[in-house]
Amino acid sequence: MKLIDSKFAPLIEGIQVTRFGVVYFFHEFVVTEINEGELYSSKSSAELTKLIFEHYGPNTNIHVISNRINNYSVEPTYWFDFYKNENANALKKVSFVYYNELAYSNAKLEQIFIKCKSECFKSLHDAIDSISNITDKRTA
Questions:
Q1: In this predicted model, what pLDDT tens digit does every residue of 100-130 receive, in sequence order?
Q2: Global pTM?
Q3: Residue ranges of domains in the chain, CATH in brackets
């Protein structure tokens, strides 16, 4: 389910349409919906990081929900490159919402490389509800 079609749409604080997909900003988290067929790369990540810091400020803890409504690829070395970034510690949780077994398998593979908390969910509702249970909330 697209976020914009969900019951959470009225809670959106901001929307950015980028070359790689759509980014939705909420009070305590970000939801991404990457474009069909996209190769999500370090360049995409740098753009997303910039948008996050522009929206929330430099001293933030962020939780990202990857709403995988489309099929796309992640650059194989992406997470290795991400953790070389000086802002990597701002990422506190990654949630993957999957709608088919391929998306689930890809998310489970990515979890191997993620150094912060990460979870997989079958629904956007469950992923968003999980944010309320996190004690390390956004600080900006």
A1: 999 999 999 999 999 999 999 999 999 999 9
A2: 0.92
A3: 3-131 (3.30.750)
Structure tokens at 33: 């919906």
Tell me the one-letter amino acid at 67: N
User: Which residues, 6 or more positions from 25, have their beta carbon under 8 angstroms from its beta carbon?
Assistant: 12, 13, 14, 15, 16, 55, 56
Q: Which residue has the tokens 């909330």?
A: 137
The residue with tokens 């604080």 is: 13
Partners of residue 117 on adjacent β-strands: 93
pLDDT single digits (tens) 33-82: 999 999 999 999 999 999 999 999 988 899 999 999 999 999 989 999 99
49: left (phi over 0), alpha (psi -120 to 50) or beta: alpha
* Amino acid (1-letter code) at residue 41: S
Structure tokens belonging to residue 133: 């249970």
